[in-house]
Amino acid sequence: MSAPTILLTGRNGQVGFELQRALAPLGKVVAVGTADCDLADGAALRALVQSVQPALIVNPAAYTAVDKAETDSDKARAVNAVAPGILGEEAAKLGAAVIHYSTDYVYDGRKAGPYTEADATGPQSVYGQTKLDGEQALAAATPQHVVLRTSWVVGAHGGNFAKTMLRLAGEREELKVVADQFGAPTSAALIADVTAHIAHRYLQQGATGFPFGTYHLAAEGETSWHAYAQFVIGEALRHGKALKASPDRVHPIPASAYPTPAQRPTNSRLDTARLRQTFGLHLPPWQDGVRHILQQIL
Ligand SMILES: NC(=O)C1=CN([C@@H]2O[C@H](COP(=O)(O)OP(=O)(O)OC[C@H]3O[C@@H](n4cnc5c(N)ncnc54)[C@H](OP(=O)(O)O)[C@@H]3O)[C@@H](O)[C@H]2O)C=CC1
Ligand SMILES: Cc1cn([C@H]2C[C@H](O)[C@@H](COP(=O)(O)OP(=O)(O)O[C@H]3O[C@@H](C)C(=O)[C@@H](O)[C@H]3O)O2)c(=O)[nH]c1=O
Ligand SMILES: [Mg+2]
Question: Is the pLDDT of residue 1 over 80?
């Protein structure tokens, strides 16, 4: 049996970078970035899929600048909402499957407990709305899709909140960070490893009886942006990193005191029972992933 071809988008992003490693043992990975194919160019995207002829498409590419998306909404919509539908249509022509990613920001964040996949969505931002539209466009184009909704992605490669906090803590003695939004930082490496398990099972088993659908994929546990910032700064100091701010100088503030163009959900907690029950995958605590990344970048 010859190795299957896997088309991977967003190769330079946090998750795409880790996927290049994690998918490598499963087949021939054709990894593309913006320079190879602009996902906002539908015709180019169709031509790419038709020339690569993948058995599986993995699509971590996205417009992820949450605040910028509020004003740059046409671009965000093209990449997040339209491109997944095009990938789904082209995959369907080939009999291929698509693994796609979405976000906690599809929810309104007003639920008391963790969200399950069955809960109603209610995006509060352009980013969240375009990501939800992308999920729906993909699902309408092909039943052979897996959507992994994750949260607060953090990786060694690429930009994220943890790196922003390390930079700010190197510049200032005092930081103010939102303490009334809750979620789980999820490492790009964990997302890539879980994806590889799902992809491997699909490539072995094929589409018949495969549990396609939407799954939450977030590290175990929960924190606030504020406690997360304190954790990152504390760990960095333990590693001997010279910083101006210490954890006790990271002050909790309400989201109302940190106005941003896009509204973030108060509750971003994702229940991952469905992923565990379906694929037998147990997700580690968020601190493990963050510590591992800090070891890499410090
Ligand atoms: N980051 C987060 O906190 C979260 C992310 N997610 C979702 O997880 C997935 C992966 O996110 P993550 O890896 O963090 O994202 P990144 O922002 O790190 O990477 C996204 C990648 O998409 C590429 N991209 C953007 N626009 C285009 C375009 N027009 N054409 C081609 N490629 C494009 C970017 O390429 P380039 O570098 O060239 O611009 C970049 O490499 C996304 O679906 C995201 O919505 C879900 C929850 C949280
Ligand atoms: C920089 C900074 C941010 N904040 C707040 C703003 C916001 O409420 C929170 C997080 O800010 P960020 O802009 O880094 O996070 P944001 O870009 O909103 O992160 C989101 O990205 C998208 C792609 C997702 O899908 C989400 O899961 C989530 O990870 O921290 C502070 O309170 N103080 C600060 O100094
Ligand atoms: Mg951001």
Answer: no
End-to-end C-alpha distance for the chain, whole angstroms: 43
Residue 2 confidence (pLDDT): 84
246 and 237 Cβ atoms separated by less than 8 Å:
yes
pLDDT averaged over the chain? 97
Res 120: pLDDT: 98
Residue written as token pair 């406690």: 227
**The CATH number of the domain covering residues in 5-160+185-221+268-285:** 3.40.50.720
Strands 223-224 and 182-183: antiparallel
Please, which residues bridge with residue 182 across strands? Answer: 224, 267
Q: Which pTM does this prediction carry?
A: 0.98
Using CB distances shorter than 6 Å, the residues near ligand 2 are 64, 66, 103-105, 151-153, 161, 164, 168, 175-178, 181, 225, 255, 258, 260, 264
Reading the block at residue 75, the tokens are 């671009």
Span from the CA of 142 to the centroid of ligand 1 (angstroms): 22
